[in-house]
Amino acid sequence: MTLKTTLAATTALTLAATGVFAESHAAMSNDMTIVSWGGAYQNSQLKAYVEPYVALHPEVNVVWDESSAEAVAKLRAMNEANNITWDLVDVEAADGIRLCDEGLAMEIDVDEALAAGDDGSTATDDFGDSLVSDCFIPQIVFSTTVGYRTDMVGDTPPTDICAVFDTETYPGKRALNKRPLANMEWALLCDGVAKDDIYDVLATDEGQTQAFAKLDSIKADTVWWTAGAETPQLLADGEVVMGSTYNGRLFSAIAEQDQPIGMLWDAEMLDFDGWVVPDGLSEERLARVMDFLKFATDTQRLADQAKYIAYGPARASSAPLVSTHAELGIEMAEHMPTDPANATNVFVTNYGFWSDYRDDLDSKFQAWLAQ
Amino acid sequence: MTDATHGSAADKSVTTDPSGPMLAADGTPLKTSLNRALRKQKRRALFLIAPLLVFILVTFIYPIGEMLFRSVENQIVGDTLPRTVRVLADWDTEASDIPGPAVFSALAKDMMVATEEKNHTRLGSRLNYEASGLSSLFRKTGRGVDDVGEGYTEQFVALDPAWEDPQTFIDIFAGPRWLDANAVYDGTGPRPTFRLAAGIGEVLPQTASIYRDFARVVQTEDDDNPAEEEPWNAVYLALYEDLQAGAVIPADMAHADMLNAAQVAAASFTTTDVLADFVSFDKDWADRDVWRIIQTYSAPYTTGYFLNSADLQLTPDGVAWRPENERVYVTLFIRTLIMSTAITVSCILLGYPIGWLLANLPSRQANLLMILVLLPFWTSLLVRTSAWKVLLQDQGVINDLLVWIGVVADDNRLALINNATGTIISMTHILLPFMILPLYSVMKTIPPSYLRAAKSLGATNWTAFWRVYFPQSVPGIGAGSILVFILAIGYYITPEIVGGTKGVFISNRIAYHISTSLNWGLAAALGAILLVIVLGFYWAYDRIVGIDNVKLGG
């Protein structure tokens, strides 16, 4: 009897409290689930914009979910179950395009939703080429590039990307991504195809055969990775002489962990990482997310992120504000993939090409690997 | 006959009537009474297991069934392009020409609806599984399709400005039920479902159909009132076609005079080449192969995913092999089976002596050994696999040791990882407890006196083991093998980490299609095939060894 009364009383109280609470904050939800990649990258987001935002809005409770690697599949499942539990999702540009294509992410008018650049440019101009999809709000520019063991390459450290295919000068194993992306482009580039023609050539059967033939020359010497952390590990263990990975991973292996590793910027593949907002959020949740998004992608916040990780801000107006590493105190600008000294020879991932040819090239790539 | 046999057994306790059916004590026939009692018992048993049964049905059988269903499901084409699919059915795939204007006109309407509902890119992704380039074809088309038919819109409006007024269309097409409901709609909750006016579907079939889609999309996607929105160009396109097709306008219809005037004028309208519009979005629309693919995959159910799983493909000319450089699944299935068998055999070889030791050592040592067997079992799978990575790599512990002893040369270290060897070694280790535990529990029940008896009768150690001990331990081997094999065949994480390219299983491809390529249909087909293979092995095992011989304990 007492138990029942207590229960009833508690329930009534809770309901009343929720009612009052909901009424006073009807405009914006106070809970926000942010999905990211974990590790140093998520930490840079936490430090650069989530903590400052929560300091401004102490009523907001941020929950992290480290599921970005499976974001596309999980969002699709949530959409089918009609129960979207995420508010903001960090994905690579290619996944952003995919989510937009599938109708799983919301289209966002950047000029309306985001802050203008500090230098007065509109958001559209400020983000420029990084706005690869109507649903995708870029945060950072990263690149896939090659790192090598300084003590295993003799007196002539490699300076261009084709060193990957040069097993005579640089004997030893290589680590490459277990996906066609970047590998196919590099193979054609080092097989004499002009940089501007690469995607046209890669769209043809002959071009694909040519790329696979070039990759064949190092197939036996290659370890294939699936996670970006594998290459720094393999390099540190001396398992491979060189390998491709994301530039931020190489930066932390070189600058933060002081490994005997050097890196190339030649033919780096530029790519973007950014936010998408799942389609179908309630009004209160959407209001909160958009408020956060406006704050988290302004010029200063994106520049701040570069203090914690060696990825370039997606806004042009943030570049002059990039300062020093939060702990090491070194200038970060020269470690950015977009720094003019580094970006002398870059590829910008051709998303249009890859969204069309991804399935096709992937099955050919997997068949090639299995042979 | 049955009654007679029952009778002889039940004679003592039941009153018998030699002329009729046997009766129970209360006079009902024995059979009925017995059945009733059994039924009651069964019902009670079912009631007791009901929570578990419901739980399994809801959380296991239903989701798996739904997922497997995706392997044949293909409604997306017919749902997204209903008009096109209907018209395209008449097109002969062998024809040397692309489909005629009727198909393009239908496509213009379907694409307009699909683009507004943001379904067109989804369909593009689906068809892109069959041929590269279709994804961008649909995306590009979606960007321009709202202009198709603009020429007709302008000519209708030039004829009579009232054609620009949304109310004109509402007067012609909207039914009274929707008009009433819409008039009282107060802005909360979903808008009332749009209904057409009676009979309009017979008078202007195309226009009525596209206008209904227009009204629905305006209401659901934009949350606007169709009475205030100008119709799409596709609606005017349909209206032009209906009028040109000789629609008979009843005199009592709303705006009958306008429609009649338009019908007269339409005969001299400047026509728009819809086909040319589509080709201007992307020249692939003039490619016959694109249309053959759309037609081939327009059925609501497809065998395409299953064929793909067997490296085959569905073409308009029937089933054919995929190009040689795309064949990967048959290789992977065979590899999965061979490697699972190898893992099972190594588990037997390693597990059998340990099981024997566990069963025959004094209990002090046996308990210690048991803990050693179970300890890795309780360690995280990822930790164990990563540990193998450290042990097996080129500069790893095992290779360093071998180089140090001088068994292998420093520049010729063994490749133990990123290949099939790595997968077999680490998976054998990981699955070993599943072999040892059933072996142990069976061996524990074999009395040691049998071996002693065999020896005292003159058998050698080998004969005693092979003829007496081993046959009795076979049920343990059977149980262990079936456990290890079925677990191995669906293993994912260990091959992914240590398997490189030659040591990965079919499950790694399933995971790829689920989480990266989003080709869930293909993933479901591969999964279904894997499930059938497992069930096939189970059935074969039952036929050869007999599932009753499997013992997990006692």
Structure description:
Chain A: It comes from Loktanella salsilacus. Chain A: This is Putative spermidine/putrescine transport system substrate-binding protein. Chain A: Keywords: Signal. Chain A: InterPro entries: SBP. The complex is a heterodimer of chains A (371) and B (554). Chain A is α/β, with parallel strands linked by helices and 371 residues long. Chain A contains 14 helices and eleven strands. In chain A, strands 1, 2, 3, 4, 5, 6, 7, 8, 9, 10 and 11 form an eleven-stranded mixed beta sheet that branches. In chain A, helix 2 runs antiparallel to helix 13 and helix 3 packs parallel to helix 4. About 4% of the residues of chain A have low confidence. Chain B is mainly alpha-helical and 554 residues long. Chain B is 65% helix and 1% strand. Chain B has a two-stranded antiparallel sheet. In chain B, a hairpin with a 2-residue loop joins strand 1 and strand 2. The radius of gyration of chain B is 36 Å and the shape is elongated. Classes of the chains: A alpha/beta (371), B mainly alpha (554). At the A-B interface, helix 3, helix 4 and helix 14 of A face helix 6, helix 7, helix 18 and helix 26 of B.
Order of helices and strands of chain B: HHHHHHHHHHHHHHHHHEEHHHHHHHHHH
Helix content of chain B: 55-70%
Record field, number of beta strands of chain B:
2
Poorly predicted parts of chain B: 1-14
**In what order do the strands lie side by side in the largest sheet of chain B?**
1-2
**Regions with little confidence, pLDDT below 50 for 5+ residues of chain A:** 13-25
Q: Indicate the proportion of strand residues of chain B.
A: under 5%
Q: Specify the CATH architecture of the largest domain in chain A.
A: 3-Layer(aba) Sandwich
CATH topology of the largest domain in chain A: D-Maltodextrin-Binding Protein, domain 2
